[in-house]
Structures are given as structure tokens and as C-alpha cells.
Amino acid sequence: MAGVDWIPVTLARDAVIRINFAGTTKTTLAQADLYKTKFDLSDQVTINLDDTTGGMCMVIGYDNTKQTADVVISTTGQVLV
After folding, report:
1. What are the boundaries of each domain within the chain?
2. What pTM did the predictor assign?
3. Which of 3-12, 18-27, 52-61 is modeled with the greatest confidence?
4. Which residue, among 77, 62, 4, has the nearest Cα to 29 in the 3D structure?
5. Going by C-beta distance under 8 Å and a sequence separation of 6 or more, which residues neighbour residue 8?
């Protein structure tokens, strides 16, 4: 696919990963985001709170002060940024 970066990943089943988050429209996480909203990556080390199209990072915890989220990676869908 032209113009798309492919990021190699190793999925660890049932692993919780702490990752940074960023967004321009949505800048923080809330209780309503937990367990159901899947966010996409903006780069190799950051989830994009503004992008839920094709997302695979399900938030199970967060720290808005440190701008980090604890996520589980969905094993369905593509990983594109």
C-alpha cells in the first residue's frame, strides 16, 4: 500500500502494554473509553485518541496526567499507520 508505514509487531496474548497517547480533538481518556473503544496507532509508541477507524488498542486503564494508557492489543484487524 503506497503511503502507509507497516509496523512489525509481536503480539503477546493476554498481555497488558503501557503506551503513550496523543490526540488533537480528543486529548484525554475517560471511563467511557474503557474496554470497548479500540484506538489506532499514530506511530510505533503512541496511540491516537482521534483515530478509532480500524483500531486495535483496547484501553483497560489510563493516566491522563502522564498521558499513558494500559492497552490490550486486539488480534483482529490490520495494523496500519
Report:
1. 29-73
2. 0.77
3. 18-27
4. 62
5. none
